[in-house]
Amino acid sequence: MTTPAGPVGLVVNPTSGRGRGARAGDRTRELLEAAGHEVVELSGETLLDAVHRARQGVSDGLSALVVVGGDGMVHLGFNAVATTRTPLGIVAVGSGNDYARAAGLPLHRVDAAVRVVLDALAQGRTRAVDAAHVAPPRSLDGRWFAGVLSAGLDAAVNARANRLSFPRGHLKYLRAVVGELGAFLPFGYRVRADHPDGTTSEWLSAGTLVAVANSPMFGGGLQVAPGARIDDGELDLVTAGPLRRMQTVGLFPRLYRGTHISHPAVTISRTTSVTVEPSDLGRTPPVAMADGEEIGPLPLRVEIHRGAVTLLA
């Protein structure tokens, strides 16, 4: 595959990594231009503006889109290039970098990350990876995500972590866990899943954790779905039934090692699509999150699209 000629679009999150994003963006531009590429700045004034500018750039014929930041920038990139022929380059300088870690890309090493992009552009070397699409059932609207959609205590923790300015990375997530556990009660769910073998299943229960994973990690290194792969055409559905508060306290540290999968309340299954709805068996679940970004309230349907994104890797 040869990458088509055209400018390279650049989207930078200047706040990533305690302000390292702006410096990383400047260095990325410098290296791309030194290699002879025309660079089009698409960052925009707001995240929504950046998404619109990136999509327009892809429509106008970019040879590639390069995002500089953390998982939020990867999320933006997926929503700009999914189902197109425009490849995505990732310069990972955020606090979490869960997707870049899963993809085996350099972390917090700008020159190395840009070298991956430049080599891939020069050699036409790309990697097809899956993208997950999430939308309300029967809706024509929706969004793409790269990593993990969470809809339980994991989502409430994610939302709280986003509001915290200190500390960074997994420590911020851990602080958010402590804050959410203070008054935790299980949520109510109805989860319907379609499996690769053509069967379907339903989980109707009070629950603690619900995650739909296209990649293994979220929250700055928590291995919520250790067996998930970004290019296998499947989603890993992770559920945890109703747990008492102290049981939940014991479960979350195991996410760092992926050993929660042996807990009797935890179930993991391979799926191609999942519908998550609230039920009256517990509290109303929180707003769902994906790649650290707010998606919206339940019900939601997630579908995997194999090879929908092309990575420069």
Fold and architecture overview:
The chain is an alpha+beta fold and 313 residues long. It folds into two domains: 8-124, Probable inorganic polyphosphate/atp-NAD kinase, domain 1 (Rossmann fold), CATH 3.40.50.10330; 135-307, Tumour Suppressor Smad4 (Sandwich), CATH 2.60.200.40. 30% of the residues lie in helices and 30% in strands. The protein has helices spanning 16-34, 47-60, 71-81, 98-102, 110-123, 153-163, 169-181, 245-251, and strands spanning 8-12, 39-41, 64-69, 88-92, 126-135, 143-145, 148-150, 187-194, 200-207, 209-213, 235-240, 266-271, 273-278, 288-290, 293-296, 300-312. The protein has a six-stranded antiparallel beta sheet. Strand 5 (126-135) and strand 6 (143-145) form a beta hairpin. The radius of gyration is 19 Å and the shape is globular. This is Diacylglycerol kinase family lipid kinase. Its cofactor is Mg(2+). InterPro entries: ATP-NAD_kinase_N, Diacylglycerol_kinase_cat_dom, Lipid_Phosphate_FormReg, NAD/diacylglycerol_kinase_sf, YegS/DAGK_C. Residues 1-23 are annotated as: Disordered. Belongs to the diacylglycerol/lipid kinase family.
